Amino acid sequence: MVDKTTDKQKKEEILDADLEYIINEEKKLKEKLADSSHLERFTKDLMLFMSLIKDYYKGNYRDIPYKTISAGIVGLLYTINPIDIIPDFIPFIGHIDDALVLTFCLKLIEKDLQKYQTWKKSQSTAKPTTHLKKKA
Q1: Where do the H-state alpha helices sit in the chain?
Q2: In the predicted structure, residue 96 carries a pLDDT above the cut 50
Q3: Could you give the CA distance from residue 45 to residue 51 in angstroms, rounded to a whole number?
């Protein structure tokens, strides 16, 4: 019988490693999105997902199922990796497989991404509490 605590810890370690990798590759992802007409349409959603990943990694936002984070990470890892089903260096069609994978992954996480976006907006509109000292 597999120890559930150990299994959960292993998943979290793998997830943390993937999150770190993707956060460090954000610049590469932005460049790839800008360079490909097939991937341009995903820019807004992927940048929102990158924000979600950062907030999840920092512990600011954890109200998201593991399967959502996993699906998004798979999509990003596939997109960032230049070696895939159709290599990215092939003109005109090199990014088609990336677009298909992203479409599928973003469809899977759409509701949770919208939920995160609502949370993110509420965080930016929340007014910070200031503690003023009374003057004597």
Answers
A1: 4-24, 26-35, 43-58, 66-80, 96-125
A2: yes
A3: 10
Calculate the CA dihedral of residues 46, 50, 52, 56 and round it to 10 degrees: 150
Q: Give the pLDDT band of residue 35 (cuts 50, 70, 90).
A: confident
CA distances from 86 to 8, 11, 44, 79, 83 (A): 34, 29, 24, 11, 8
Closest to 100 (Cα-Cα) out of 125, 74, 122: 74
- Is residue 75 packed enough to be buried (19+ CB in 10 Å), middle (13-18) or exposed (0-12)? buried
**Is 136's pLDDT higher than 50?**
no
Over 60: is that where the pLDDT of 2 sits? no
Of 69, 76, 85, residue with least CA distance to 14: 69
